[in-house]
């Protein structure tokens, strides 16, 4: 593909990304993969170049653009003027530029989200936003059911030990994880350092009754299983719950590979969660609530997600988060521990959810950010049942 053809491909993909962000469609990564599935002529260098350009444009457009073409023109004018010469060039190029045609405005986030983040970060919001839109590193958690971090690190001296985690390593950029023997053997699991810190905050122990109330595909569940291990096996009762069948169905093969046997999986019906967990009410030693959220702390992985969020969707998420905290509290025995986590940095999903909850002691909380902690953005709060 010529540079002009790559630019045309990026514009086509960006058109799909804009529509998907508006209508709740697939993520940008998925759209890029689909695009090239039907275009076998594109080589690996072409695919990489187009993907890099798509994400560079997405990162540079704070507000959702009108179109992929407008997004590219705005990005080119602000960051890469050489791209402008490719419009109307020979070959499979995008049509020539037209006098006065629209161009997307730059920026790091939609104005209303920047304002909300300003409530948290004040004058530091610019630095925090820049880090939130940087490329994310590849972190893994060493699965202590099968291996020790020191042993894995000794085999891979170029893998960085993450000191704020008990089992974390950071891999060099470009590592093809699926080709690593430690991955194939289940010695490591992909998990951002912040996510590892969040799971560890529950301090799950062998022999306990622990509920992962929003398990999703099971990343934190597997971390809890390792924390609850005795003699190399899960010891206790670990319950992984979710209302999303597709995501929860990813846990069994992951658990099998990790050697995390005996996890109790429960698919919950929305609105009927308490009924499905009636046998656990008032009995749990610890409950982790990794609640559905805006994902504003993970923009560096999915930068187009900041185009998807609306005030209405944020309000719906906040309602769900409050309901989950109430449910988690009911599951606890007296003295039991609760950890509420969101991969969000918006106060509406953090401190605003910690209003006095009947039956709980006071909350303690912390914030993790890419700028200050080198991991995804998280709000993590802990409390216990009176």
Fold and architecture overview:
With 386 residues, this protein is an alpha/beta fold. It has 2 domains: 3-107; 192-384, Vaccinia Virus protein VP39 (Rossmann fold). It has 16 helices and 13 strands. It has a 7-stranded mixed sheet. Strand 2 and strand 3 (168-171) form a beta hairpin. Helix 1 (3-23) packs across helix 3 (44-60), helix 3 (44-60) packs across helix 4 and helix 9 (193-200) packs across helix 10. The chain is globular. The termini are far apart.
Short description:
This protein has helices at 3-23, 28-37, 44-60, 68-79, 111-121, 125-132, 149-155, 181-184, 193-200, 219-227, 245-248, 251-258, 273-276, 305-308, 311-331, 370-373, and strands at residues 138-142, 160-161, 168-171, 188-190, 209-212, 229-230, 233-234, 237-242, 264-267, 284-290, 332-342, 364-368, 378-384. The chain is of the alpha/beta class and 386 residues long.
């Amino acid at each position: 593909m010529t540079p002009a053809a790559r630019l045309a491909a990026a514009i086509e993909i960006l058109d799909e990304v804009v529509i998907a962000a508006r209508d709740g469609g697939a993520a940008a990564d998925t759209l890029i993969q689909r695009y090239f599935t039907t275009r076998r002529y594109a080589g690996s260098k072409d695919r990489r170049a187009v993907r890099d350009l798509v994400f560079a444009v997405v990162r540079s457009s704070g507000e959702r653009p009108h179109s992929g073409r407008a997004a590219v023109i705005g990005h080119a004018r602000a960051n890469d003027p050489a791209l402008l010469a490719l419009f109307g060039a020979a070959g499979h190029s995008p049509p020539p530029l037209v006098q006065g045609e629209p161009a997307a405005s730059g920026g790091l986030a939609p104005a209303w989200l920047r304002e909300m983040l300003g409530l948290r970060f004040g004058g530091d919001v610019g630095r925090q936003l820049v880090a939130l839109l940087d490329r994310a590193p590849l972190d893994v958690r060493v699965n202590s059911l099968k291996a020790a971090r020191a042993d894995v690190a000794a085999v891979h001296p170029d893998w960085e030990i993450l000191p704020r985690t008990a089992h974390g390593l950071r891999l060099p950029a470009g590592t093809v994880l699926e080709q690593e023997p430690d991955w194939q053997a289940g010695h490591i699991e992909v998990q951002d350092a912040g996510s590892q810190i969040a799971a560890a905050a529950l301090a799950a122990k062998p022999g306990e009754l622990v509920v992962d109330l929003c398990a999703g595909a099971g990343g934190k569940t597997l971390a809890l299983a390792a924390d609850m291990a005795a003699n190399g096996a899960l010891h206790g009762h670990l319950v992984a719950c979710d209302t999303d069948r597709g995501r929860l169905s990813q846990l069994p093969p992951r658990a099998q590979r990790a050697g995390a046997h005996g996890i109790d999986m429960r698919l919950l019906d929305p609105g009927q969660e308490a009924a499905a967990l009636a046998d656990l009410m008032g009995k749990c030693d610890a409950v982790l609530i990794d609640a559905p959220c805006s994902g504003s702390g993970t923009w560096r992985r999915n930068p187009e997600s900041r185009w998807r969020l609306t005030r209405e969707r944020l309000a719906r998420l906040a309602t769900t988060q409050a309901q989950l905290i109430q449910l988690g509290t009911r599951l606890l025995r007296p003295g039991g521990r609760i950890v509420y986590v969101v991969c969000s940095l918006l106060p509406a999903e953090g401190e605003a959810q910690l209003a006095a909850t009947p039956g709980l002691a006071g909350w303690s909380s912390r914030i993790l950010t890419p700028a200050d902690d080198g991991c995804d953005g998280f709000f993590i709060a802990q409390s216990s049942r009176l």
